[in-house]
Design a protein that fits this description.
The structure is a homodimer.
Chain A (H helix, E strand, L loop, with lengths): L6 E2 L9 E3 L23 H4 L5 H8 L5 E3 L2 H10 L4 E3 L1 H7 L4 E6 L10 H13 L4 E6 L3 H13 L3 E6 H6 L1 H9 L3 E5 L5 H9 L7 H13 L4 E3 L6 H21 L5 E5 L4 H15 L6 E7 L4 H4 L1 E6 L8 E6 L21 H8 L4 E5 L1 H15 L5 H20 L4 E6 L7 H8 L10 H8 L6
Parallel strand pairs in A: 5-15, 6-7, 6-9, 7-8, 10-11, 10-15, 11-14
Antiparallel strand pairs in A: 1-4, 2-3, 4-5, 12-13
Helix pairs in contact in A: 2-11, 3-5, 5-6, 6-8, 9-10, 11-12, 15-16
């Protein structure tokens, strides 16, 4: 190929037909999830009341390397995939960097993000099992939108518990979910025991992802034929999201490229875990010396300032416990934090990789992130989601380091989605009313003190 | 090719390097624009105070068949183009139609629509001429967003007069334009003579595209080094938008397809004129028997209920006059009309083709349009703009006719953009508060009575 194109698309024939399960190649496995009643490793069967069977199986399966993507899911993938691998020529020029910057853009679907990749899979398996309905939570709204879309397609009723501050700040996100027939409830709500309890303790709370999870799990486990689905953190989600990394790997191979640095934003880890999967396998197998960087908000710094410990996946302490980097399941990010990436913990797979030194992590304050987002939008014609813009910020900084050293590194980052529903945050940035927030050590300690296992 | 893929992308090498000027192949030319002072055909030089020179030239050039796209514009096109040609397998299945439905999706850029194709060209030529700034108007906001994006890229100051009802209904659209450094003014405003006059006559007016054009033209012609740019209607815009049709033609050729029916929404005609261009050439040359259908809102029915007459392009009656299908430049669509497609006239090129029988036109009430939009979103994973959804409605109806007759027609329609900023309208549809509006004959006659030439 004479010159790398701006946008590169795989053909339908070149698209991956299997997901890749990184756990099968990890030298050490993440510690097992624990049953909160017994503190013993949870079994697949114990997950059946929460997840549908196939997903419970995928959650526990740490040995199968590649898993066939069912044809019904491939059908839906083909409607909006492959996503383009974009060479950021304009950004490179703007920065004057010798680095080659690539990004994998996952925003070309109604949900506006990569979340649809897992939503389709989860809705499909639920339908296949004949379930009557699903519940979930959503923070910034991307996951809720994606799942609404997937459930509308497979014709399964869905209730979405939407973190209250997002529910109020983003009425149009709610409207999109309603377009796809979802029942959207502001969380905490009075429709669940755990919601009522949280409201009683703190009537003014703007909610948290952990709290919305508690409500969704309670609703699923107390309603006949219902199950719960989650858009991040879980092993099964990283498995589905491996499509991002597999497509990236294939595209770069065709272009004769390989990343020296792979960068992704990290909230619960779904995008990052999917993007890095095939490249991390090469690293584990000693085939590359690639750096992997997780980028998180300074206001919710689970990897950079959290503890590697067992914790609940939800605020209400009803879910199984996972060993992960966590800020404590009671941690709620400051209300002035815009966008997603507000989960208290981090995918156990990514936590383990980070703990074992395979991955780095950095955090940024949001004004620095929106600065990068605005620059990126102006030169690359895509308005990035605040979440994705964390990765942009880091990619720009790494490219600027290359400018200093003169190194022509190949940088790959994940552009997970678009920011059309985040204009209030963009406005506050442009009007210079956006504030940064970094939790104090005392605040973090207060949440750490409540960890279930010392 | 064994099976047509869901999404087909041309490679960079296959992308068109020239625009196509349909006028060069038309058997009869549209009537010339008239100077409103002399009522004589306007000259290229007389356009220089309004448009930059190269664009004035393109506006008048009815003989050059293909025009090279400057490399600087191709550079920018490559960032977000080619746009995919999508086979609507899911929609076909949902409808149970034997028809093959294709759509060209132009929403994959921050402006969320095809408007960027011309915005880039217009900003580039202005920059090349060394202009100090540009003015324009925007209705639903797509054009203003696209031009803001293009002007930020080429670093030219921009003032956007935004139709007041959109300005109030769509604060986030405004915020996107501001992200790209545009100065956004609600129209009618007190910053121009024509705006002040309109406000004095009707202080409660929610504005119109024609009125915003008047203000933008006045501002451009009274500010040193400024020019005016327009996102639709003009010959130059149709020229730039021919990229849509040329890519579609090339992609269909590779796929072994040719459309029996080409459908596009029509406000001022920019998308439709660009989409049909190469296929219409074939029709003019007697090489096909393809049907071309312009789809417009019943609330602003310029082709289906307008007069073919000379009219001003703006409400303030300061622009040259064009022979076109028009509702009268004083016509303002009902405030309950959602989205764009609210211009009183129609591209002179398209008007001529319609008048000469090369093209058909239909109109739909907006609840029927949102019904189609919602169905489409659920099966095709793209949330369409209300404008684009007019074309969807018509494509669905044509596909259903095929279901009745059993004909396997090939339908191509333009999906001009996404509806992320139109959720208020979607909500009103879902909550069944959306109203339809069809102007009465008396209302139309009142506007016709004010046409400048009887």
């Amino acid at each position: 190929m004479s010159k790398i194109p701006y946008r590169f698309y795989l053909t339908e024939e070149q698209m991956p037909k299997q997901w890749y399960n990184l756990r099968a190649d990890m030298k050490e496995q993440p510690d097992p999830m624990l049953n909160p009643a017994t503190f013993k490793p949870i079994t697949e069967e114990e997950l059946y009341p929460i997840f549908c069977k196939e997903l419970a199986h995928q959650e526990m399966d740490s040995t199968t390397q590649f898993i066939d993507i069912p044809e019904e899911i491939l059908e839906m993938y083909r409607i909006y995939r492959p996503s383009p691998l974009i060479r950021a020529y304009n950004l490179e020029k703007e920065l004057g960097t010798p680095a080659k910057i690539y990004y994998k853009f996952e925003g070309n679907n109604t949900s506006g993000s990569h979340k649809l990749n897992s939503a389709i899979a989860q809705a499909y398996y639920a339908k296949k099992q004949g379930l009557k309905g699903l519940t979930t939570e959503t923070g910034a709204g991307q996951w809720g939108t994606a799942l609404s879309e997937a459930c509308a397609y497979f014709k399964i009723p869905l209730t979405v518990f939407m973190v209250k501050c997002s529910y109020n700040q983003k009425p149009y996100r709610k409207a999109v979910m309603q377009t796809f027939d979802a029942n959207v409830v502001a969380s905490p709500s009075d429709t669940t025991n755990v919601g009522r309890k949280i409201l009683a303790e703190n009537p003014e709370t703007t909610g948290s992802l952990g709290c919305a999870i508690s409500e969704a799990v309670e609703k699923a486990t107390t309603t006949e034929g219902y199950r719960y689905v989650l858009g991040s953190v879980l092993n099964q989600v990283l498995l589905h999201q491996s499509i991002i990394g597999l497509e990236s790997e294939k595209a770069m191979e065709i272009l004769g490229e390989y990343p020296d640095i792979v960068i992704g934003c990290a909230g619960g880890g779904s995008n990052l875990g999917g993007l890095i999967a095939p490249f991390m396998r090469d690293k584990i197998l000693g085939k590359n010396n690639t750096r992997f960087i997780a980028v998180e908000p300074a206001s919710c710094p689970s990897l950079t300032r959290g503890k590697y410990a067992y914790d609940f996946c939800d605020t209400g302490r009803v879910t199984p416990m996972a060993k992960m980097y966590t800020l404590g399941c009671g941690f709620i990010p400051s209300a002035n934090h815009a966008g997603g990436l507000r989960y208290h913990g981090m995918s156990p797979v990514l936590s383990k990789l980070y703990h074992d030194g395979y991955m780095e992590a950095v955090s940024y304050e949001q004004t620095k992130v929106f600065e990068a987002a605005t620059l990126f939008a102006r030169v690359e014609t895509i308005l990035p989601a605040p979440e994705s813009s964390h990765a942009i910020r880091c990619a720009i900084d790494e490219a600027l380091k290359c400018k200093e050293t003169g190194e022509q590194k190949t940088i790959l980052f994940g552009l997970t989605g678009t920011g059309y529903f985040d204009m209030a945050a963009y406005s506050s940035y442009h009007e210079k009313t956006m504030q940064d927030y970094i939790p104090t050590d005392e605040e973090l300690q207060k949440a750490f003190d409540k960890l279930p296992i010392k």
